[in-house]
Amino acid sequence: MKSFSHHPKGTMALLKLFLMAFSFVFWAAGLIMLTIGIWAKISLGTYLMLSTNQYPPNPFILLAAGITIILWGFLGCFSAATEHRCLLRTYGGFQLAVLAAGLTAGLSSLFYRENIAEGFQNGLREAINSYTKDEEKAEALDFIQRNLNCCGIESYRDWFSSPWSVEQQGPNGSVPISCCRTQKGCLHAPLPSDARGIYHNGCFSKVHDFVSYNMFYIASAALGLAIMQCSFSLFSILFIHVTMARNYLMFFLVLLSHKIEQCYSVF
User: Are 230 and 99 in contact (CB under 8 A)?
Assistant: First the structure.
């Protein structure tokens, strides 16, 4: 029976090593989630501010999930190293919660991506009409026009009927300085009839494409991490069951061999 007594110890050591490796991978996934959440908050925050649709709080979901995974990842290593069953069960339940959060962030990004057009069209129109009243939206609109090299909703002419442009009393209409290709000589200068020196293309299509493109990658990353966690969890369960089955098979073979030896010793 000495040969069998070695197997459970080896099996448990292998299981502990596997669970600790899984905890490390899980911790790395949390770091990736945190990075994606920060990137999404920084890159999309200003754009989503101008949408009239209620956008999903995916950056915050990813940030919260990433921070929590990083903190709880150490719990997974500790529970695997100490073989603490209660902590292992808690860690398993936590993995399911993170899996649900990843799926929620990914799927909501995909659904939101299909319904962003109307929200941004209305949001840009509201921002133009309230340009002198809502400073936060005005700053967001200026940021978008400067960074995407655009002006207005469909074209720079959208500004001409705005309350802000009427107040400027320009002969050919007025646009904000954020519509200018270069700021030098643009501020308070009369707008040329051919609109030289300003961006002609509207912001709607560019904002739509930018947000849709980034939402797709956020959704892909969140769903990819969730699928990876699910696959790793299923693999770990399968590994445990296969190892236990082999353990029982070895026990049965050793026991059978021992019984056969006893029978031969009688004869």
Answer: yes
